[in-house]
Design a protein that fits this description.
By secondary structure, the chain is an all-alpha fold. The chain has 26 helices and no strands. Helix 10 packs antiparallel against helix 15 and helix 22 runs antiparallel to helix 23.
Amino acid sequence: GLFQLGGGGMDEFIALWISHDGSTGTSGGSGLYSLTNYAAELFGTESGEANANTAIKQLFHEGTVILSFPNVCTTGDARTVSQLWSVVQRMTSQMMVPLIQLLIDSLMEENAERVKFHALAVIPQVSQCRPSIYKKLKAELLGNTVSFAKNQEIISELQRTYDCFGLTCADIGAYKQDQVPQCEDFPINYPMAEYTPTTQVHSHAKIDLDILQVRILTSLQSYSFAKYLYSHGRNSPLPRKSSEDAYELRSLEKFALTPEREAANPFYNDFVEYFDDIHYGHTAVINALQGKGKYGAASPEARTEVVANTCAYQIMYMYALAEMADAIQDCQSKDALDNVGGVHSWDEVAAFLIGSLEGPTEGGSADTDDGQLMWNLANKRAFQFQTLNEGGYSTTNSKLEDLLFAGGGELDAYNCASLKKTIAGIQHILLIPVIQSTLRYAVENEKLEVSNLDKTVAEGETFALSVIPVIKSYDANAAQVIVENMVVDAGVKPVRDGAQVVADAFYEALDEFGISCLFVGASSQVDACRKEGGFSASVQLKPSGYILSAVLIAACVIVL
């Protein structure tokens, strides 16, 4: 079948959870069911039995019903795989409730031994959440000494992980009524890198957690579970009108295969024509996960980069473009909320470009390990290519933020002509961090004598393939230079003409679609503005306002 059922199942799970001496509502047994009831009593999250136990029992029933279907988890009824996967993910969320509660209890009781014990159960799981929070909690709770003077700060950081586990503040509750008050869930208008949505798109933005977790699983060579997560999703649930509605998840695979991508033209056609494959991103991911194709036999590190970067910068890039096309349709029909769940079209665009991991503040997270989407990539590369603004984050993102705010206002006013121009500017400015990344790995890989398809070669090629189809549509000669240097086979020297030749090829294409090379910048080894006398000289001649003007002028040319 499509799902391995041998050696375990729902009955075995519930037996292990409740144990031989568990009875309804009691906390005196030896199993996890009783432990969960005990923890719930401390946090006021019980009514006859722990709310988490009630939820787990309900999910157990839902899972057993699915397993009773004819042809369950086979090609005869493949949808049951997604249904069962969804049940399992919600179960594991509820299983985290007592672990988090008991860790908070240990902190408040200032019991260092118990803190270490419970932290070992919780903190490794936090690694699947925001990396900066994981690093902080790991240092505080699994370091040499726990500082109880930092309890408030530690618990506050722990509360920020609830959402990542699919939990609400009410699921955890308040410790001993008021010693640790119940936290507050994310509001509808919770900002993403200072972009403030007007509708609930936080669950959309959490697709970045899927990318992070696929990256982790692939790096651990857990390719089967990485594929399950890629195919069926985990962190981004679709809205439901009631608890009776089916619980469905967005997934990277659905984004990779959806016909909605066809609206993202001309870019979609550019990619399909280049790869001769309408499912080009999906093909690259599945081949790397299943050990097929060019990188199928490469190192785990190389396969991880192919999978994660294809998801972030090919699949999600194209889907974001498709959402922009949908925004234009909504503008023309004068219904900005014509979307599943009644969310604002433009809020969806921002969610899929910024993600949930950047946090609410201007510029996004100070830790560039956090984000997983285009916004994060721009901030990462700004350090290397001298394109930071006065706020300490990417100039590209500063201009992108301006365009996002402009687009939202234009859609609300149903000013469709201006919205088209803004979208054209965004479509092209999003390529800047991908170009910078291609150049970063051109510099890395030109040092190699021959390619062995290792990690840096895989990164360079994946980034290059995320932009070459568009470059080719503007300047076929420039695209060919990039292909010959960045898309190489094992045993062939990569970047044979040197990183600067690759940069010069990008310059020609940038000039074609009207974006200044100042956006790309320069490192100590490569200069995107060499043909203009160098980056430093160009900065003095063309201040930042010129760069934005170039983008907007290009947008007008493209639309008109």
